[in-house]
Design brief:
The complex is a heterodimer of chains A (about 325) and B (about 260). By secondary structure, chain A is mainly alpha-helical. Chain A has one domain. Chain A is built from twelve helices and no strands. In chain A, helix 1 packs across helix 10, helix 9 crosses helix 12 and helix 10 packs antiparallel against helix 12. Chain B is an alpha/beta fold and about 260 residues long. Chain B folds into two domains: about 170 residues, 3-Layer(aba) Sandwich (Rossmann fold), CATH 3.40.50; about 60 residues, no CATH class. In chain B, about 35% of the residues lie in helices and about 25% in strands. Chain B is built from ten helices and ten strands. In chain B, the strands form two sheets. Chain B has a six-stranded mixed sheet with strand order 6-7-8-3-9-10, with helices on both faces. In chain B, strands 2-1-4-5 form a four-stranded antiparallel sheet, covered by helices on one side. Chain B starts with 12 loop residues before the first strand and ends with a helix. The chains are: A mainly alpha (about 325), B alpha/beta (about 260).
């Protein structure tokens, strides 16, 4: 396996793990069905891109976007995380306060579609349908991004981000606060009846999840160096939901496992199948890629039917000193 | 200083002219009620009388269409449920409302209002910050579990308990908030007779300790045994109140509800 392939795989795995940890906190632990999750990753990516890009008059002015601040690492990543959190405030304010949870899910799905359509058509804002290209990766002014050592560096900083995200999410989930979140997920009215403020709990976790999702987008755009509406269509959120359902709702290790099995694993299998000409030429064009979506749907249905708790179920909390 | 009556004589909760309408249907239609401290007040009436709706309005689960609710001298009419619970006005539900995927012990711990780890900041600070609170509350919760004979179940998921055990979990969960007033909505419904006896014993015990309870209950023998005062509702209105024996002597109440 060559270095570039391995680094590519590890970085994608890291990004998907961070995203799945955030979605698990929102959906698995707190019961917020955030069908617009990918929008928060996207806003983090756009923010990081415009923070690291030069003004759009550079490169012959071939693309148009707001900003262009040419900030060095880590500011684009920090900015991406903050953007994800900031977006969560108005969205949460509209969606989470009054609507019942099933309507919240529908509203968030619709938001995802609207956001993508608006950004696609607002071509002077963030590059429109063509998106943003030539996004400078972190440290690119000091190290050539096309070298092997740069790949190791990017893997390294991605791993640091994964560790930080895991530590934050783990502390929240395994605390008394995490217990309140799980109680809200189980029965919101009863949680309110014991003094929990469901709106505050949901808003807080929506923002925390938005920050982590934004960070994952910033890492991704720094690596692939481009970002466009076609990479954050709403079905991308469904892949992450599939990862949580397969891995185990409410279990952080399950979220990591799900990230490795579904977004990373499926993507790789599809790519490998497509690289074999005998298989790639089966059926109509893009048959294998389309089949991937069918399989993801079947995977979700299969797990919900036969093993709803996922590969790694939520752990039962047993306290020391209790009965054997 | 105004001349307030003494705390012992002053009602703990005063609900005045409470209305709750659902698209023209008057589920609660001008109910006024006072709950005396340290007593068990019963709320009885036929199905559809509006008892549970009234309890939900008192607890803040449903907003009142009109009327006022004063709890310990404070107007709480517009407070949401969680703010009323923090003032230690705590309810249980007519249908089991345990947190199914939390263990029995966790169901109790989650209700404790004084854990430093029960905020985002506290959670991020780590166990060193909230561990002492957690240990103290685990001891308190285990004390309740022992008292209610459920110590052996502490690590079981609450969703796997029987109907009666779920009722006990809910009562213990409410007690973790150190309530001043406990609203119990049919605590005996769907419960095995053996556990009914137990719940009755626990409620008497709690009253002896000075806890104030307002209880909706259908089983009239139980109401007679437990309640100091009984309020009768029918068709969204209060149609009488007093001791159970005095109510039995009022013909319109007997006709409306106490037949047999």
């Amino acid at each position: 396996m060559n270095t570039y392939y391995a680094a590519n795989l590890l970085i994608y795995a890291g990004i998907d793990i961070i995203a799945c940890l955030a979605l698990n906190l929102q959906f698995g632990v707190s019961g917020i069905v955030n069908f617009s999750f990918i929008v928060f990753q996207a806003v983090g990516a756009y923010a990081a891109a415009v923070l690291s890009l030069p003004p759009d008059t550079a490169n012959g002015g071939f693309q148009h976007y707001v900003g262009g601040f040419q900030l060095p690492f880590p500011f684009p990543w920090i900015g991406g995380a903050i953007a994800g959190g900031l977006l969560a405030i108005p969205v949460g304010f509209v969606v989470l306060r009054k609507l019942r949870s099933d309507y919240q899910a529908i509203a968030l799905l619709v938001l995802s579609v609207i956001a993508n359509t608006v950004i696609t058509n607002a071509d002077k804002f963030l590059g429109g349908a063509a998106g943003l290209a030539l996004v400078p990766p972190p440290f690119s002014d000091r190290i050539d991004p096309n070298t092997e050592s740069y790949q190791y560096l990017y893997v390294g900083i991605t791993i640091v981000a994964v560790v930080v995200a895991f530590a934050v999410v783990n502390r929240v989930v395994n605390s008394p606060y995490g217990r309140s979140l799980r109680a809200m997920r189980e029965r919101e009215i009863a949680a309110a009846a014991i003094g929990k403020n469901p709106v505050n709990l949901k808003m807080t976790i929506f923002i925390v999840g938005g920050v982590i999702a934004g960070l994952s987008g910033a890492i991704l755009v720094g690596f692939i160096q481009l970002w466009a509406p076609s990479v954050w269509l709403y079905p991308e959120t469904i892949i992450l939901f599939a990862a949580i359902i397969v891995g185990g709702r409410g279990n952080n290790i399950g979220a990591i496992l799900g990230a490795l099995l579904v977004p990373v694993g499926f993507e790789e299998v599809t790519r490998l199948l497509n690289s074999n000409p005998n298989i790639a030429n089966l059926g109509p064009p893009n048959f294998i890629s389309a089949l991937q979506w069918v399989l993801i749907g079947l995977l979700i249905l299969g797990f919900l039917w036969f093993r709803p708790q996922g590969v790694r179920p939520e752990p039962r909390r047993v306290f020391e000193g209790g009965p054997e | 200083m105004s001349s307030h009556p003494t705390d012992a004589a002053r009602p703990m909760l005063v609900a005045t002219d409470i209305h709750r309408h659902f698209e023209g249907m008057r589920a609660v239609d001008g109910v006024s009620l006072e709950v005396a401290p340290g007593k068990i007040t019963g709320l009885i009436g036929p199905n559809g009388a509006g008892k549970s709706t009234f309890m939900a309005v008192l607890a803040g689960t449903l907003p009142a269409t009109s009327g006022t609710i004063v709890f310990e001298g404070e107007d709480i009419t517009h407070f949401p449920a969680h703010q009323r619970a923090r003032r230690r006005l705590v309810r249980t539900f007519q249908l089991p409302s345990e947190f199914a995927q939390l263990t029995v012990l966790e169901n109790l711990l989650v209700a404790a209002p004084t854990n430093r780890g029960d905020s985002l900041f506290g959670a991020l600070m780590g166990k060193g910050y909230w561990g002492a609170d957690e240990r103290r509350l685990i001891d308190e919760a285990r004390g309740l579990l022992k008292r209610f004979g459920m110590s052996a179940k502490e690590s079981d998921y609450a969703g796997t308990m029987s109907g009666g055990q779920k009722r006990l979990v809910e009562i213990m969960r409410a007690l973790m908030l150190h309530p001043r007033l406990l609203l119990l909505d049919e605590p005996m419904s769907g419960v095995h007779p053996k556990i009914v006896e137990e719940i009755q014993y626990y409620l008497q015990d709690l009253r002896a300790e000075g806890l104030t309870i307002l209880m909706v209950e259908h089983e009239l023998h139980m109401v007679e045994r437990l309640c100091d005062t009984v309020v009768v509702m029918a068709q969204g209105k209060v149609i009488g109140s007093g001791t159970m024996s005095s109510l039995r002597r009022q013909q319109e109440i007997v006709d409306a509800y106490l037949v047999g």
